[in-house]
């Protein structure tokens, strides 16, 4: 079976028709210039080493070389061998706080962006686990059901903003409840929920829901985003600092105690996000340390790459094109 490892790179072949059009335009321009100077055939005879069609040949060699190099860049591969590989992992749901307080900039560039970076880094380190995404503010919504398609998860994650949840606030209990419904109801283990929030919870049911989830076999880890000192909130539309009803700036602070209590009730761990890599490593290690379930077999194909042959062919064509010397005007010399 043949495939291109980076098939999107083949889009660069679109430059070839543009080059052909430009080359043809150059030939017409050159011919018109020569006609203005005199007889075209006579002028060509005055060009040292002039051979009909050589300019076209040089262009064809360069264009073919470019096409071959682009194909090599896309890396043509052929399946060398296949084997069945047993996959083991757990189901992981990420519950991401998207309330407007997550736009605070006490952690750069802002809390929500860093949270999304953390989830991206985690998926880079995960292999067989199924992942899902729940976003929450005043309400919770399932954005991505459990899947092994990490690229789809990342694509959806990039588009997450506070606007995806119409009701503002921070109700962690709803996020836990919806996550429990999204897990398989047939198993009482192999499940992990990661709650990423600044902890400004407006609902006292979060601890109760966390205990119920733990009793149902869901391990809850929490990640704190922000700082205890907090930061003022800037309205993304007006670009001005938000004020409360008394005219004072609204300050959003990280509530670590709330998140620690939820993690303890959920029999998991609490992590304060400082370094994204360290936090991702810790969470993935926690997940890998859980009992894993058999997720079935997948057909694994080992591919052999052939990019080097295309790059070599392109290089040879460029050398041949370079060796074809261009024509020059003859120099008239007089002897006495």
Task: Describe this entry's structure for a reader.
With 336 residues, the protein is an alpha/beta fold. Mean pLDDT is 86; it is low at 327-336. It is built from ten helices and 13 strands. α4 (111-125) links the parallel β4 (91-97) and β5. It has helices at 15-37, 40-45, 54-74, 111-125, 150-158, 172-182, 206-215, 256-265, 276-288, 307-323, and strands spanning 2-4, 47-48, 76-89, 91-97, 130-136, 140-147, 191-197, 218-224, 231-232, 251-252, 270-272, 293-305, 328-329. It has two domains: 2-75 and 306-329, no CATH class; 85-296, von Willebrand factor, type A domain (Rossmann fold), CATH 3.40.50.410.
Task: Describe the secondary-structure layout.
Layout: E1 2-4, H1 15-37, H2 40-45, E2 47-48, H3 54-74, E3 76-89, E4 91-97, H4 111-125, E5 130-136, E6 140-147, H5 150-158, H6 172-182, E7 191-197, H7 206-215, E8 218-224, E9 231-232, E10 251-252, H8 256-265, E11 270-272, H9 276-288, E12 293-305, H10 307-323, E13 328-329
Parallel strand pairs: 4-5, 4-7, 7-8, 8-11
Antiparallel strand pairs: 1-3, 2-13, 3-12, 5-6, 9-10
Largest sheet: 6 strands, mixed
Total discrete domains: 2
Helix content: 40-55%
Number of H/I helices: 10
Which CATH architecture of the largest domain would you pick? Answer: 3-Layer(aba) Sandwich
CATH topology of the largest domain: Rossmann fold
Tell me, what is the CATH class of the largest domain? Answer: Alpha Beta
Uncertain spans, ≥5 residues at pLDDT below 50? 327-336
């Amino acid at each position: 079976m043949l495939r291109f490892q980076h098939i999107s790179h083949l889009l660069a072949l679109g430059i070839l028709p543009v080059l052909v059009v430009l080359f043809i335009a150059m030939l017409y321009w050159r011919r018109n210039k020569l006609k203005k100077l005199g007889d075209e055939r006579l002028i060509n005879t005055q060009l040292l080493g002039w051979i009909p069609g050589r300019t076209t040949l040089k262009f064809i060699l360069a264009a073919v070389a470019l096409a071959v190099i682009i194909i090599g860049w896309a890396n043509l591969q052929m399946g060398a061998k296949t084997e069945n590989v047993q996959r083991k992992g757990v189901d992981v749901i990420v519950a991401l706080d998207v309330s407007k307080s997550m736009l605070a900039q006490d952690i750069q560039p802002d809390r929500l962006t860093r949270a999304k970076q953390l989830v991206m880094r985690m998926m880079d380190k995960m292999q067989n686990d199924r992942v899902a995404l729940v976003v929450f503010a005043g309400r919770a919504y399932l954005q991505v059901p459990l899947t092994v398609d990490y690229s789809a998860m990342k694509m959806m994650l990039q588009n997450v903003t506070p606007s995806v949840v119409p009701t503002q606030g921070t109700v962690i209990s709803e996020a836990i409840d919806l996550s429990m419904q999204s897990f398989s109801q047939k198993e009482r283990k192999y499940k992990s929920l990661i709650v990423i929030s600044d902890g400004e919870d407006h609902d006292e049911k979060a601890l109760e829901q966390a205990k119920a989830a733990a009793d149902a076999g869901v391990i809850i880890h929490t990640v704190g985003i922000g700082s205890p000192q907090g930061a003022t909130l800037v309205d993304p539309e007006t670009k001005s600092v938000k004020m409360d009803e008394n005219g004072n700036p609204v300050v959003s602070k990280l509530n670590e105690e709330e998140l620690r209590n939820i993690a303890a009730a959920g029999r998991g761990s609490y992590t304060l996000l400082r370094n994204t890599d360290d936090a991702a490593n810790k969470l993935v290690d926690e997940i890998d340390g859980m009992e894993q379930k058999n997720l079935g077999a997948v057909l694994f194909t080992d591919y052999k790459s052939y990019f080097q042959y295309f790059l070599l062919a392109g290089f040879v064509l460029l050398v041949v094109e370079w060796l074809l010397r261009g024509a020059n005007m003859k120099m008239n010399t007089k002897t006495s």
